[in-house]
Amino acid sequence: MASVELAGISKRFGGHEVIRGLNLSVPDGSFTALLGPSGCGKSTMLRMIAGLETVSDGTIRIGTREVTHLEPKARGVAMVFQNYALYPHLTVAENICFSMSLAREPKAKQREMAARIAKMLHLEELLERKPAQLSGGQRQRVAIGRALVRDPQVFLFDEPLSNLDALLRVQMRLELAKLHNDLKTTMIYVTHDQVEAMTLADQIVVLDKGVISQAGSPWELYNRPANRFVAGFIGSPA
Ligand code: ADP
Ligand code: MG
Predict the structure, then answer these.
(1) Does ligand 1 have an atom closer than 6 angstroms to the CB of 42?
(2) Helix, strand or coil for residue 48?
(3) What is the pTM of this model?
(4) Cβ–ligand 1 contact at 194 (below 6 Å)
(5) Which tens digit of pLDDT belongs to each residue from 142-183?
(6) Ligand 1 pocket, residue 13 CB under 6 Å
């Protein structure tokens, strides 16, 4: 577990500044949602925290360490994407344990870990299947399992449920809430879906064109929106 602190973060692509002097504090163990319309810079923010994108200005701290210029795997984060790619030729168990097999961890340890994670994500019966034999929701659980196996200090989710149908999305929301409750690991969750943010997060950060429009609890945003943009986005009367 660890807090995440962003100070003065900017990001320019060519001459286009998509994140502008952003400061953000994500408390240790919190579930923070980054909420905003398409193109406002959510994925770019997450990718900079993960180290998949460089920052133009500013610093990033995770726990007690400054990680601004560290490579992704040295940051103690694991990311789950919207278009999660599982290895089609590997079983569920092998997909979950892929990073362990790369690290040449003993097979017995991998089996034990796969079983533990499968239990947490209700995948016990599916460990020997291939991705093609799974439903969308089951595949997304395997993608989450692959992040869990790395035992990160911080989970980063980039719209992980947006490819699922409405019913599965509701179910997976509950499962993510339970996962956070069980693990108590810091989670930063990108979404353009205000209902998802309102039901999952203890802190919501509303992004508008690369700046924070408001950050606060769901209650604060709903009852005390700082401006029309937030009010419109959260859906309470302005
Ligand atoms: P969101 O995830 O909120 O939809 P993004 O972070 O993907 O938004 O994108 C924010 C802005 O940055 C957009 O205008 C997008 O076109 C631009 N952008 C993102 N990645 C790149 C890139 N690699 N090169 C140039 N522009 C980019
Ligand atoms: Mg995005």
Answers:
(1) yes
(2) helix
(3) 0.93
(4) no
(5) 999 999 998 899 999 999 888 888 888 888 899 899 999 988
(6) yes
